[in-house]
Amino acid sequence: MSGTTAGLRRKIRGAGDLQSVVRAMKALAASSIGQYEKSVRALADYSRTVELGLGACFRVAGPEALMTIKTSQRDASEIGAVVFGSDQGLVGQFNDVVADYAVKTLAALPGKLRVWAVGERVHARLADAGLPLMGLFTVPNSVKAITPLIGRILVESEARRGRDEVAELHLFYNRPVSGAIYAPVSQRLLPLDENWRRKLAELPWPTGNLPEVMGGSTATLRALIREYLFVSLFRACAESLASENASRLAAMQRADKNINELLDDLNRTFHRLRQSGIDEELFDVISGFEALHIEGN
Q1: Cα distance between residue 47 and residue 33, in whole Å
Q2: Which of 39, 99, 133, 198 is the most interior residue, by most CB within 10 Å?
Q3: pLDDT by residue (tens digit) across 45-62?
Q4: Average pLDDT over residues 20-47
C-alpha cells in the first residue's frame, strides 16, 4: 500500500510541475498576442499614409505609372509565394490549415512555382505536399524581430525578380478572426493591377490642401511601392504570429483543463488509498487490542 501511495504522490507532484509550465506558457502566449495585435493597429496609420501617397502619385502619373514594375513575357508564368507558419509546436492545426490552403490555392494558378516558408513546421508540411521550396526563414520571436525578417524576404524576392525568376508574389498566412479562431488568407502583392491603382487614385485627400509630388514622380512612386510591400509583409507576419499565439493559448487552456481533471482524479485515488490504509491499520490495532483483552481474561 505504501508503494502505491508513494507512486501517486510522484504522479501528483509531476502533474503539478507540468501545470506550472503550462500556465507560464499561457501567460506568455496571452502577452504575445497583445503585442502583435498592437503592432498591427499601430501599422494602420502608416499604411494609410502610404496609400494616400500612392494615390497622389497615381493621379499625377496616370495608368502608365504601373509600368514602373515591369514584367516581361518570359516571367508571365513565374509565381513566387511566401507562406507564414511556425517554428514551434503546441499550436494545434495552425500549420496544417495554412499549408493546405496554400497548396490548394497555388495548384489553381498556372505557372512555375517558387515557394518560401517562414517556419520549420510549415516548411515540412509544404515539402510533404511536393511544393518546390526555395528557402526557409526563421519565425520572429518578438515584434522587433519582424522588420529584419521582412527585409530579408524583400531582398530575396527583389533578387529573383531582378533575374526574371519571379513575376507574381503571393502571401499566405493565418489571420485572427475572434478569440482563438483564425482563418487562412492570401494576398497578391505583385504585379500591381489597374483596379488597385484606380482604387488608390480615388481615395479622397483628408485636407483641403491638394497634394503635390515633389521631385521625380517615378522615383517617389518606386519608394512608396517599396513601403507598400513592407507594410503588407509586416502586417501578414504580425497577424500570423498573433494567430499562432492564439492557437497556442487555446491548446494550453485545454492542457490546463486536462491536467486539472487528472489531478482531481489522482487526488481522489490517493485519498481513497490513504484512507483505506488508515482503516486497515486501525483494524489491526483494534484486533490486537481485542486479542490481548481476551488473553488477559
Answers
A1: 21
A2: 99
A3: 899 999 998 888 888 776
A4: 89
Strand partners of residue 187: 171
Q: Where does residue 131 rank: exposed (0-12), middle (13-18), buried (19+ CB within 10 A)?
A: buried
Dihedral angle computed from the Cα positions of residues 138, 139, 143 and 146, in that order, rounded to the nearest 10 degrees: 50
Residue with cell 488473553: 295
From CA 165, how far away is CA 158, in angstroms rounded?
10
C-alpha cell at 199: 482604387
Q: Say whether pLDDT at 185 is over 90.
A: yes
Quick check: 94 and 86 in contact, CB under 8 A?
A: yes
- Walk me through the domains of the chain, giving residue ranges and CATH numbers: 26-251 (3.40.1380.10)
Which grid coordinates belong to 168? 507574381
Contact yes or no for 131/103 (Cβ under 8 A) = yes
Evaluate whether 231 touches 47 at the Cβ level (below 8 Å): yes
Q: In what order do the strands lie in the sheet with 78-84?
A: 133-137, 112-118, 78-84, 168-178, 181-190
Asked, as a colleague might, if the bond just before 191 is cis with ω within 30 of 0, I would say yes
- pLDDT tens digit sequence for 125-177: 999 999 999 999 999 999 999 999 999 999 988 888 777 667 789 999 999 98
In this prediction, residue 64 carries a pLDDT of 57
**For the chain, how many residues are written?**
297
CA atoms within 13 A on the CB side of 145: 7
